[in-house]
Amino acid sequence: MSIVAVLRQMNQKNFRLKNKKWMSQGRNMVRVKHRNVKNGFVEKKQSTPPTPPKVVSKKLFLPFPSQSYRHVNDNVHNQLYLYYPVDKIVDTPEFQRLRRLKQTGLAHLVYPNTEHSRFTHSLGVYCLALDFIRKLAENQPDLEITSRDKLCVAIAGLCHDLGHGPFSHTYETILSPDAKWHHEIGSTDIFRRIMEKPHVKEVFDKYLDYDVDIDFICEMINPPKEFMKDGKWVLKGRPIEKSYLYGFVSNVHDSFDVDKYDYLLRDSKSAAPISLSDCSITRIRDNMRVGFDMRLGFKRLMYATKVRDELMNVATTRMKLHDSCYQHQKVRACEYMLKEALNCVNHLLKFYGDDGRSYSLKDAYKNLGAFLRTDDSIVSMIRCINPEHPDSKQAMRIMEDIECRRIPPLIGETDIPSDAKLEQFQDYLLKKLEAVVSEEELDQFFVLEKSLHCGLGLNTHPLSKILLYNHKTLAISQLEPIENDLNWQRIWLGASPGVKKMMVFTKYDASSKLKDALYDAIKAYSEEHQSTSPSKRTPTKVLVEQKESSVRRNLMQEEEEEEASASGHPHRDRSPIAPRQNGNGGEELATPRAQRTRRNAPIPKRFQEDGPQALSQKTQRSTIAAGLRVRQKTRARNIPKSNGRASRKKQSASSADSESS
Predict the structure, then answer these.
(1) 203 Cβ partners below 8 Å, 6+ apart?
(2) Pairing between β-strand 298-304 and β-strand 468-469 as defined by DSSP bridges
(3) Percent with pLDDT over 70 in the chain
(4) Residue 171 pLDDT exceeds 80
(5) Of these residues, 77, 121, 160, 183, which one is catalytic?
(6) How far apart are CA 179 and CA 166, in angstroms?
(7) Which of 261, 288, 303 is the last residue before a domain boundary?
(8) What residue spans carry the Low complexity bias annotation (predicted)?
(9) Which of 9, 60, 523, 541 makes a 20 to 30 Å CA pair with 249?
(10) What is the pTM of this model?
(11) How many helices (DSSP H) and strands (DSSP E) are in the chain?
């Protein structure tokens, strides 16, 4: 008899458990006690059968990355590989909506090449996330990173921006403060919606454990600020032994993650040049390891000491791009105008949700079906609204001002303390302006807050939170975080982690009196709080003086040309520079007389007799007259003239004929 047959017979026999005896009769379980067994009589007592011990069967999942993939060309990472089954998420209406969302909001109005979408950015983050975790698994095999871990990190990078609204972060500014909604919440909700689709779930059920991995991906997209409460691990997706996996996509501890790496490289390629390159990101990836953080009590990603400068470039590049691109003065002014236009037509735009109800633009986030119908095409929807409605007229007028470049000018920009509020600064300006301008002009300006930091807020530098290790350590098991070098801290961490600024704008048609008064008020505020003096392109008074001086120089030049033409030397100013003898017997270039005397020429009498008001009036009349003279000259130039060489040849030919005759 074989061993299998013996084991099968043993399983069919009765077994004892303490003083109870279990007998199997088909599907019925009969409990028999020894004291009730008399003369072969068995007393049967029906009872609820207990649940047998649960045997957990370990489900086998298919490996990732798979052998099947889709090749994509990218202008940042050159080549992307969408491995199966990740492409099933990409080929859904929810993900394809990202094609209709610009990555940089309204920055394309200043930098025309920044018209790339959230779609390409999400593909780039997916590529970096997969590369980073595969490289870490190769460098530290003892971490036992599974194919499920790799797939979850890659999907989190792919779907981290699903919840963005129209024009990126501009949509969040029109929501009410009580909404308590941000795009990370929308990203997790939309991701769960995608994964519950039948054709998607059928495929991913072979690669993921839906009961655990879906929560894990959502926790990576929208991680909590604290991973432990009262000394206990609160996250559900992965145990504390794999806490380092939460630092790839959205790193809340030191802000260095693949999302930031991609948008810094991608946006700077079309907006402003930076000191960061893809080689720097590759260097950071190759020198990344996992170490235990004694302060937090779990494992985190750490970096070699030799890539500290690259990490510093990442931090400073973020601040520079926010200053020069994302929060550029014209971009912020256009966002303010777009916000006003959307507020005007909020009740006119309707988006139908999954429940059949219609939602306004501000309430679209309350229903996923309605929210997924919002994208950057709302600008075209504004033009399709009834033009007779007064609110739609106002919105169309604002959109026309944006297209015609009638944008509010920046009057001044100054630093303020990090704890100061916008309302306090605005009240200070109003008090200064009440005695200078009229009440009607007090509504002709607005203030916007500009926050520039390296990733962790105004008071925390991200380099103070990173973990470093000595890259000279040969044994991987002996890698431990080390303290930052004091000299390096003194050089890099001495810089401010962030700065808070106030930007003051006026309406496009505001008076120069209001602009000058605002500039003086901003300057007084900076002097009182000992902050940097307000930066401004050029004060209004100086602009007027520069325009008048330029017109004055043009008029003086024209008068000299007229005097020269009247004296019989019409081309003296444009005569070629001829060499002349100098005192040493050599030759030197002689400058025309008009160029020598024009710099120190006296101001004409008509500019000395009257005041500045008459000056401006006369300059206007003079510019009109100068324009007429220029037109007459151009008309005279367009009259066809005989060629001098041809006429001379004809004359010489006629003289030769006369001599021969």
Answers:
(1) 85, 88
(2) parallel
(3) 72
(4) yes
(5) 183
(6) 17
(7) 303
(8) 652-661
(9) 60
(10) 0.74
(11) 24, 17
